[in-house]
Amino acid sequence: MKFLHSYGLDSCQWINTSKSHFFTANAFLSFLSKIKYVLGCSRGNIPFNYLGVPIFVGSPKVRFLQPLVNKVRSKLAYWKGKSLSMTGRVELVNSVIYDFLSYNFQVYKWPSSLLKLVDKWVRNFIWTGDINKQGSVTVNWGTICNPKSEGRL
Predict the structure, then answer these.
(1) What pLDDT is stored for residue 118 in this prediction?
(2) Of these four, 31, 34, 85, 98, which has the most CB atoms within 10 Å of its CB?
(3) Can you give the pLDDT at residue 45?
(4) Distance (Å, rounded) from C-alpha 85 to C-alpha 129?
(5) What is the C-alpha radius of gyration for the chain, rounded to an integer number of angstroms?
(6) Residue 62 lies inside a defined structural domain of this protein
(7) Which domain holds residue 67?
(8) How many domains does the chain divide into?
(9) How would you label 25-64 residue by residue, b for 16+ Cβ within 10 Å and e otherwise?
(10) Burial 109-137 (b: 16+ CB within 10 A, else e)
(11) Both 36 and 65 in a single domain?
(12) If pLDDT is split at 50, 70 and 90, which confidence band does 73 have?
């Protein structure tokens, strides 16, 4: 606690013990009680979310990442009713969905089953505006591959 108090004096960043938790693995109850008394914080449970990213022990499992996948699905489903051009849908996916996912990909390697599912939803949304409807490609490949500066995708 002396260290944390000294840190607070130097940085003006104070520990809020009512919001803070400590985490341990395989500790005796007496040791946990001492830590709780010294720090003034409660013991946290794993899994938990930190800055929107699930924190858990072990490799990423579908059940831990499912809330993030549901968030992507709900965003895409919400945008379904909007009258957006294909370019507008591409921009939304690039600026919102892919930014959200890339932030999470920096922490975990996602299971391929979830990646395939999200990729299917995004692809369907871009082509049809609906994640549940598979559309056929209706734009010339050369048109898509030209730079945005030329008005392409």
Answers:
(1) 92
(2) 98
(3) 85
(4) 9
(5) 23
(6) yes
(7) 57-150
(8) 2
(9) eeeeeeeeeeeeeebebeeeeeeeeeeeebeeeeebeeeb
(10) ebeeebeebbeebbebbbbbbbbeeeeee
(11) no
(12) very high
